[in-house]
Specification:
The chain is an alpha/beta fold. The protein has 10 helices and 20 strands. The protein folds into 3 domains: about 60 residues, Archaeosine Trna-guanine Transglycosylase, Chain: A, domain 4 (Roll); about 110 residues, RNA methyltransferase domain (HRMD) like (Transcription Regulator spoIIAA); about 190 residues, Vaccinia Virus protein VP39 (Rossmann fold, 3-Layer(aba) Sandwich).
């Protein structure tokens, strides 16, 4: 059966020839056949030459490319892609770590599987689809996961796509045991994960290496963890010997789980306080007694249309943190908005520093962890921008 084809207009093929994995609607001259959301389509030049195969979708991005090498996108193709992703994590030594048992296993375009995220949580594989085409393949991926991850002790597969796949779906287990909560370990800290209620796939695994940095910087300091979620940065600070840690998040459920995670590792009555509050309002009234402040907010700019409003939000919280922090303190600040470039983020921090009338130095740039690779053909995959700043 012949697949539908997307015919690229003359002069609009350069991005494809550079193997960028997204085909935009403006580059398509015509569509041959009647593809439905999630169907496989072939992408061809105006002369009919095959260029790529991918998943068709509605919207400005009409195709996410799976292969520039072969149109045979079948079970063997996906097995090889998953094997490659697993080998990369083996090369990083992630399966062998005694102190950490949670990491990203498939990072969408970064593992040449656009639309698919898979995270490993101590034997539970959480899959999240960002396209209908990938979500249709979950029965296949579940079967392949059982096969390829058997030696690593896979115990369950969970679908966490309700908020990401077009049209929605129900979150739930696809195979294996079905715990309501699950425990993982990161850098020797125990954390409880709720796959049904948690954000992203249950935890923010991309910040693992930055949490280790916080642990190394926290001894003897008072630490404020804003947008703290379930306390990953807070546990790192406490483990590093912080005198006091405060976690602020607008979600009561997140703070409750954060407090449980702190108690699990450091006992009741530890040097920690969880606060349910809007971070910006909290910063407006916070005392200036923190030596290290962490700002890890949600994506304020979901797309380029909301970029300026998002940058305004980032500037407000960073300015207030700079005004609040003790002289000589460290500010660890992030943006996970793909629409915000590295230059946008640095310019925002410059403006916040100038408005706060503080001298600020860039100590280090902070990317996402190594298990979140970025395809050289897809620079948009570098979504997490972070800076460690020293504020005089």
């Amino acid at each position: 059966m012949t697949r539908p084809r997307l015919i690229i207009a003359n002069g609009r093929e350069k991005a494809l020839q550079r193997q960028h994995p997204w085909v935009f609607s403006g580059a398509v001259k015509r569509i041959e056949g009647n593809p439905q959301e999630g169907d496989l389509v072939d992408v061809c030049l105006a002369d009919g030459q095959w260029v790529a195969t991918g998943h068709y979708q509605d919207g400005s991005i009409v195709c996410k490319v799976l292969s520039f090498v072969t149109p045979a996108v079948d079970e063997d193709f996906f097995r090889q892609r998953l094997q490659s992703a697993i080998r990369y994590r083996e090369q990083l030594g992630l399966f062998r770590l005694a102190s950490t048992n949670a990491f990203r296993l498939v990072h969408a375009e970064g593992d040449f599987l656009p639309g698919l995220v898979c995270d490993w949580y101590n034997g539970v594989l959480v899959m999240q689809a960002h396209s209908v085409g990938m979500h249709r393949l979950f029965p296949l991926f579940t079967r392949l996961a059982e096969e390829l991850l058997q030696d690593y002790g896979i115990k369950a597969v969970f679908d966490k796509s309700s908020a990401t796949v077009p049209g929605g779906c129900d979150d739930g287990y696809l195979w294996g045991i079905q715990p309501q909560e699950w425990e993982i370990t990161e850098h020797g800290k125990r954390l409880l994960i709720n796959f049904f209620e948690g954000q992203k796939t249950g935890f923010f695994l991309d910040q693992r290496e930055n949490r280790a940095l916080v642990e190394s910087l926290s001894a003897g300091h008072r630490v404020l963890n804003c947008f703290g979620y379930t306390g990953g940065f807070s546990l790192a600070a406490l483990g590093g010997g912080a005198d006091y840690v405060e976690t602020v998040d607008i979600s009561k459920r997140a703070i409750e789980l954060c407090n449980r995670n702190v108690a699990l590792n450091f006992g009741e009555g530890s040097r920690h306080t969880g606060v349910v509050a809007d971070v910006l309002k909290y910063l407006d009234t916070a005392d200036s007694h923190f030596d290290l402040i962490i700002l890890d907010p949600p994506a304020f700019a979901k797309n380029h249309r909301s970029l300026q409003q998002g940058l305004k939000g980032y500037r407000s919280i960073n300015q207030r943190a700079m005004e609040t922090i003790r002289p000589g303190g460290l500010l660890m600040t992030f943006s996970c908005s793909q629409a915000v470039s590295v230059d946008d983020f640095k310019t925002m921090c410059f403006t916040a520093a100038a408005n706060a009338h503080r001298q600020v130095r860039i100590v280090r740039q902070l990317p996402h962890a190594m298990d979140h690779p970025v395809s050289i053909y897809h620079p948009e995959g570098e979504y997490l921008k972070g800076l460690l700043l020293e504020v005089e």
